[in-house]
Design a protein that fits this description.
This protein is mainly α. It has two domains: 34 residues; 65 residues, no CATH class. The chain is elongated. 10% of the residues are buried.
């Protein structure tokens, strides 16, 4: 019989009263104890997985990334059309490539901004 991995190490940190309340609230939203929630978030971060935001996982990050990319493409196309300039297939592909290249970073920034705004 294979022995399960025992959790024998611990990690501790100090937080302010306000930070503690925010962490507790996030854990409650996820229906987890504070310790379980912190462990899950830390391991997800260490494993390079998108952090859970407001009780949702990577799905929110993926959807936001696509929305951010689509917005960038749409605004660029509309701006070019408003100036009366034609859009070639090559230019369109460049717009798509550029939007895709940083959509994950921009999505994370937007989700972080929303999280900070909600906490305020």
């Amino acid at each position: 019989m294979v022995k399960p991995n025992l959790r024998t190490k611990s990690i501790g940190t100090k937080v302010s009263e306000e930070e503690f309340a925010r962490l507790e609230q996030a854990a409650q939203k996820a229906s987890k104890t504070l310790g379980e929630w912190c462990r899950e978030v830390m391991l997800a971060s260490a494993n390079g997985q998108p952090e859970k935001v407001n009780g949702t996982g990577g799905e929110a990050h993926a959807v936001m990334a696509e929305v951010v990319a689509l917005r960038a493409i749409l605004l660029n196309v509309l701006f070019k059309q408003a100036k009366g300039e034609p859009l070639t297939a090559e230019e369109m592909q460049r717009l798509i490539d550029r939007a895709d290249s940083d959509k994950l970073k921009k999505a994370r920034e937007r989700l972080d901004q929303a999280s900070v705004s909600k906490a305020s």
